[in-house]
Write a structure and sequence with these properties.
CATH architecture of the largest domain in chain A: Orthogonal Bundle
Distance between the termini of chain B: 41 Å
Strand content of chain B: under 5%
Helix content of chain A: over 70%
CATH topology of the largest domain in chain B: MetI-like fold
Helix content of chain B: over 70%
CATH architecture of the largest domain in chain B: Orthogonal Bundle
CATH superfamily of the largest domain in chain B: MetI-like
Radius of gyration of chain A: 26 Å
Radius of gyration of chain B: 23 Å
CATH class of the largest domain in chain A: Mainly Alpha
Strand order of the largest sheet of chain A: 1-2
Number of strands of chain A: 2
CATH topology of the largest domain in chain A: MetI-like fold
Order of helices and strands of chain B: HHHHHHHHHHHHHH
Oligomer: heterodimer
CATH class of the largest domain in chain B: Mainly Alpha
Number of domains of chain B: 2
Structural class of chain A: mainly alpha
Number of domains of chain A: 2
Largest sheet of chain B: none
Order of helices and strands of chain A: HHEEHHHHHHHHHHH
CATH superfamily of the largest domain in chain A: MetI-like
Number of helices of chain A: 13
Number of strands of chain B: 0
Shape of chain B: globular
Chain lengths: 304, 272
């Protein structure tokens, strides 16, 4: 506003007005490229997902309105129910251990450790690796004479597991792989959270004679809660959309044992050409994730 | 004399290192083996012979050179596009006042909560209506901006003092010039963090290319590796060799710029 103040008295009001207007226009122009992209590739698709969930549409011939038929068909489809269960098992099976172990390692790294940077780097390598590459490596490791059976299970006399062809073990295998891949990311997140806790708190606790475990329970955990909440929401939103390992390693099999929701949506739309039904599934996923995030926030607020 | 507790902690951390590194070593070791030596008991960590030709044969089993170029080209273009659109929008949201600014910004942030998978069908339809299926434009433009990027850069730009912009205006600098010569240089760190994040993210991109690419000549590396993986009777040494080559760019980038990398990834954690 200093520019305006420097101008002569008489036309001041008009000048300020046009200056503000010009600034507003520039602001809008600068936001425009991103807004156009968001409109085309986020807002319109979001609206269309809801819209198409009420239509039968094969993406080739014109859509026909079918009311709630898609939702009825989705909810009565046993494959959909199964893919929801598979996804929930994957998310819980992967992220409950991942978050717990990541917290443990973050606590360890937060102590006076030699070569902390080295450990951090090594744990982080799987995070930057491409998911497709990770998947093909683990597919090799899960073979009959692959690394897991030969080096881990056989010496422990557990025998040989046919990982990729077993309805029980294929989902477990994918969970193990995902834990390996994701761990480093959450270690870093938790480490950042831990380093934000002022050390005075611990010193005060020490003066009061608190043991390590008590300090962890009464200082670390409460102060780390926002980080834990964030990590779990993020884990859930990412986990619910998992697609690559199931597509590349097991193609959803054996017998739909790894047919997660994202794979089911993909196949429904692009293999069976039931875009309306896939849209209905998407809407349910959308609403479900929204509810869970809201609940997690609620839970977090009420525990404060 | 270190305490028993500290020794235990170091043992735990080292055990973690072994678990993290082993699959990686297994991959490298396999990439040098003959097909016969892949499934030996016990595992042959150091191959009897070094079959360098696996890298050449694997690379030529499919047009991986072409896939590699596509990956580099698409990921670079997406990154550049994001740097431009995100920094412009972030500057606008941080330093300008106009109607609907708050609404626009909230709408952008809202998309962070939308599961990508739920959008693939209508997103594909939009791109099809634009006539962009099976083209570079179709691979690049839909990924051309990011809510996370706008948020990250806006947070950074809020800390740039308004007086600086005001004095640039007094000096008669035009708005685009202020953006280019004041805002961008002052945001260098945030921009490089964003660039790393977007590039890595897109190097890994799979679902969208899977939908939009139809001809072999447009495939990116992840698609190529997945199709090599599913080909009848997988040649594991060659597959591992190709996978190793495919991850080299990002791995090198990571090892060279670890601190920025980890910072970039952690920043995505600060937004909560």
């Amino acid at each position: 506003m200093q520019t305006v103040a420097a101008r002569p008295q008489a036309p001041r009001r008009r000048l300020r007005f046009t200056w503000a207007k010009k600034q507003a226009l520039w602001g809008f122009v600068f936001a425009l490229p991103a807004l156009i992209l968001f409109a085309l590739f986020s807002f319109i698709p979001i609206a269309r997902t809801f819209y198409f969930s009420f239509f039968r549409y094969d993406m080739l011939t014109p859509a026909t309105y079918v009311g709630l038929h898609n939702f009825q068909s989705v909810l009565s489809d046993p494959t959909f129910g199964q893919s929801v269960v598979t996804t929930v098992i994957y998310v819980l099976g992967t992220y409950v251990p991942t978050l717990a172990v990541a917290l443990l390692f973050a606590l360890a790294l937060n102590m006076k450790i030699k070569a902390r940077a080295f450990f951090r780097t090594v744990y982080f390598v799987p995070v930057v690796m491409s998911m497709v590459v990770v998947t093909v490596i683990w597919r090799l490791m899960f073979q009959h004479y692959g690394l897991i059976n030969v080096t881990v299970l056989n010496p422990l006399h557990i025998g040989t597991i046919d990982w990729l062809n077993s309805e029980t073990y294929a989902p477990i295998g994918l969970i193990l792989m995902s834990i390996w891949k994701e761990l480093g990311f959450y270690i870093i997140i938790f480490l950042a959270g831990l380093q934000n806790i002022p050390s005075e708190y611990y010193e005060a606790a020490k003066v009061d004679g608190a043991k390590n475990l008590a300090a962890f329970r009464h200082i670390t955990l409460p102060l780390l809660q926002p980080t834990i909440l964030f990590a779990s929401i993020m884990a859930m939103i990412n986990g619910a959309q998992i697609f690559i390992p199931q597509y590349v390693m097991t193609s959803g099999g054996p017998v739909n044992a790894t047919n997660v929701l994202a794979l089911n949506i993909y196949q429904t739309a692009f293999v069976y050409l039931l875009a309306g039904k896939a849209a209905a599934m998407s809407v349910l996923l959308f609403v479900f994730l929204g509810i869970i995030s809201a609940l997690q926030f609620r839970f977090y607020r009420s525990s404060q | 004399m270190p305490s028993a507790g500290m020794i235990l902690v170091h043992v735990l951390l080292l055990a973690g290192v072994v678990v993290m590194i082993t699959p990686f070593v297994y991959m490298i070791s396999t990439s040098f083996k003959t097909m016969n030596d892949v499934f030996t008991v016990p595992v042959q960590w150091i191959p009897r012979t070094l079959e360098w030709h696996n890298f050449v044969d694997g690379w030529q089993a499919q047009p991986f050179g072409r896939y590699f170029f596509n990956s580099v080209f698409v990921a670079t273009a997406v990154t550049m596009l994001n740097l431009i659109t995100c920094s412009l929008a972030a500057y606008s949201f941080a330093k300008f006042r106009y109607v609907f600014r708050g609404l626009f910004f909230s709408l952008v942030l809202m998309t962070l909560m939308v599961p990508y998978v739920a959008l693939i069908v209508p997103l594909f339809l939009v791109v099809r209506d634009l006539g962009w299926v099976n083209s570079y434009v179709g691979l690049i433009v839909p990924a051309g901006t990011s809510a996370f990027g706008i948020f990250l850069l806006r947070q950074h730009m809020l800390s740039i003092p308004d007086e600086l912009l005001a004095s640039a205006r007094i000096d008669g600098a035009s708005e685009p010039r202020i953006y280019w010569q004041v805002i961008l240089p002052l945001s260098r760190n945030a921009l490089s963090a964003l660039a790393i994040f977007i590039f890595t993210w897109n190097w890994d991109s799979f679902l969208w290319p899977l939908l939009v690419v139809q001809s072999e000549s447009l495939r990116t590396l992840p698609l190529g590796i997945a199709s090599f993986n599913s080909s009848y009777s997988t040649n594991y040494p060659e597959l591992m060799a190709v996978a190793l080559l495919a991850m080299l760019p990002v791995l090198t980038l990571f090892l060279l710029m670890q601190r920025n990398f980890i910072e970039a990834m952690t920043l995505s954690g600060v937004k909560g």
